[in-house]
Design goal:
The protein is globular, with a radius of gyration of 18 Å. The chain is of the alpha/beta class. It contains 7 helices and 19 strands.
Length: about 290
């Protein structure tokens, strides 16, 4: 079946289970309300089960040494779309899920997920959806409308959340707020993979912070600023240094009190983050 619009939801399974479930549910709900739209879900790592087989370990304890098994894709599909995490009744022909890996926990792995999602989808207008980002009401409709007029759309309003509360931060480098047409995603992904460029400064171009290479610059873009902000939950509860450009707040005018979201982050997840030292270039990337 062919679709004109696609949502690409990407995860590495290193995310609190409740947070994973809620962001995925909202993504599925968005697809159910949009016409001619498909959802492609990809994971860095296979999803494993608890001992009774009822729910997955979302924090994959052996994620750095996991070996790909022939049945991993089937297991991931069962866990994600069989109702164990999210009910997709009536949407089975519009939702696909795949394991791409296991891959190194690296920003470039997202590119491989994007590349595979492109190969398994048909939409010309494509929005990225991240496992720890919440999108406001009307977001998808507004972003898809913007892509009818421009090759790239970036959601401008944004807020972050860490243990100290809500805050604003530098974020034009976050793919989670990007939409683009298929030809743009194809050329961008191929270029970055060919030149080993990490996804640090994406489609708007500029000098890459990690390698000093240049990502192709695209001029036909729009900053979409007439929607409520996205919410990026720092589920390692961290944020520091130049990343922060505003004071902390306990409440947000759109997203409410911080505890509603922080309560989705359990101690087992934080212990996992600390034990496995999930850091890159001195920053905690969660």
């Amino acid at each position: 079946m062919e679709f004109s619009k696609s949502l690409f939801y990407y995860t590495n399974n290193i995310v609190p289970a409740q947070l994973f479930q809620e962001t995925l549910k909202r993504c599925v709900d968005a697809v159910s309300q949009l016409d001619d739209t498909e959802l492609v879900i990809t994971s860095h790592y296979p999803v494993t089960y608890t001992t009774d087989g009822s729910t997955p370990f979302v924090d994959v304890s052996d994620s750095f040494t996991a070996k790909q098994q022939e049945s991993d894709t089937e297991i991931f599909t069962q866990v994600v779309v069989s109702g164990k995490l999210v009910d997709v009744t009536g949407l089975s022909d519009r939702v696909k899920s795949f394991v791409v890996g296991p891959l190194q926990r690296d920003l470039s792995s997202i590119l491989l997920q994007l590349q595979y999602s492109l190969s398994q989808s048909s939409g010309d207008y494509i929005l990225m959806q991240e496992h720890d980002v919440f999108y406001p009401e009307g977001y998808h409709e507004r972003m898809f409308a913007a892509l009818e007029e421009h090759e790239i759309a970036v959601a401008q309003p944004h807020t972050f959340l860490c243990a100290n509360g809500f805050f604003r931060g530098h974020s034009l480098d976050l793919l989670s707020r990007y939409g683009a047409r298929r030809n743009i995603w194809n050329t961008f992904t191929d270029h970055c993979l060919q030149h080993n460029i990490q996804v640090v400064e994406p489609l708007l171009g500029g000098r890459n912070l990690t390698y000093g290479d240049h990502i192709p610059r695209y001029d036909d873009f729009v900053l979409v600023d007439d929607i409520s902000p996205t919410l990026d939950v720092r589920h390692g509860l961290n944020a520091s240094g130049g990343f922060i450009i505003d004071e902390y707040n306990d409440s947000h005018e759109y997203w409410g009190h911080k505890d509603r979201w922080l309560n989705m982050i359990d101690k087992n997840h934080l212990d996992f983050i600390d034990k496995n030292q999930i850091y890159l270039h001195g920053l905690v990337l969660v």
